Model the fold of this input.
Amino acid sequence: MVSAVFKTVGCTAAAAGSIPASSDINMHSVQEKHNSAYSHLPQIGKLLETPQLKKWFPLITRPFTSKIASQTISDIRLSKNAKNTSEREIIKEIEKRCAEASRRRIIKVVNATGIILHTNMGRSPIPTDVWNKAAAINTGYSNLELNLSTGKRGLRNGLIPELLSILTGAEASLVVNNNAAAVFLILSTIAKGKEVIVSRGEQVQIGGGFRIPEILKLSGSKLVEIGTTNITTLSDYKNALTENTALILLVHRSNFRIRGFTKRPSVSDIASIVPKGIVIAVDQGSGNITENIPGEIKAEHYLKNGAELVCFSGDKLFGGPQAGIITGKKDLIQKLSKNQLMRVFRPGKTIFSLLEEILIRKMNGELNGHAENILNLSIAELKQRGKKLIRGLNRRYVDLIDSLISTGGGSAPDELFPSVSVEIKTPDKPDRTLKKLRELDIPIIGTISNDRVLLNLATILPQELPIVRSAIKELLKEYVE
Done:
């Protein structure tokens, strides 16, 4: 009985800290060993004072570098090799992760893919002089919503609606932040709770999962499918009309073509059978306004032939900043502009200032779209550029070959045009060569064809040719005999 009491008291005392229990001593011992195993790992503050990590502050910020360093130390603690990891190795690993993070920044790249309006690379480049002209507006205050005549609040659009209307032949125009927003605004305003007729051959999906049926559902509209994938007739449209029909939506096949046994009526044919009050809207998508691009119908054509609303992108064939442009009947544009969603979809001063300047230059005949400029380059000009680029380089590993380009960016999806490419044929695997080019300070993005790396000269801007030549020259140093 006494011994039982003694044991109980002993345990209680140990728990209180008076007499350490053997299990507690063991725990302290394990903890001390654990701490000593990582005592050599440097403190974050000390690491951030090293020149190797300080150089990342201007690129990804000090707090982000600190976060990467903390995560690296944490990962090392969990690794089996923690005891043997030196400070030098730790810094090297942190630098590697900082480099990977910095590559996620939006930086300049050289587009050598032969896809002119490459969506992953920002589509149409803004002309430098246009950018410089808009710089003063964006680096100071502007009259974005200020009426200079009255001194009171004005409309956020400048001359853009009038200029777009003159350019397209529309009664009025409106600008939102992209063409997906333009389509959604039209559906939400004109057809919410009502029926929208769309051909099955035009129920497209574009990049990022934007699907016409799903956007209709989200807008509160009811999709009425007509026709088949390859054939939609005028009778299909006529038979689908009901008292609840609000809109007929014609959708640009931006990234595919249907060939062979196909048929679909023109917008003028559809307009001839549609009763007054049912709106015909065209998602023209590509932004072909003044450009002569094979396979692309101009917005003006649709408006002249019965479409009441036409929407398209500003950063594709049009050659401007990302925007959704809606042109059409004045009463419908006014209706769209009063939708509360306009507060969500309206662009800011940067888009408006760039778009306005591009419109002015385009209408004065001083500017073409970027895609049109490239398509107008002759093969002779491209070969001349190519010969200059590879002059003096080892022709065993580099050459000029005939190739093709496409507009890309949801424009003329079935059209290919002749071009010239630099072919790199080193002993290295082409995937590895492409990776080396992507890892440059100014990454060069090429393609692979017939197990060779191709750099398409058409999409490389003239001012970028020295960058590409220098990169190839450096690349070939490894193979100097």
Summary: The first helix runs from residue 2 to 16. Confidence is low (pLDDT under 50) at residues 1-20, 27-34.
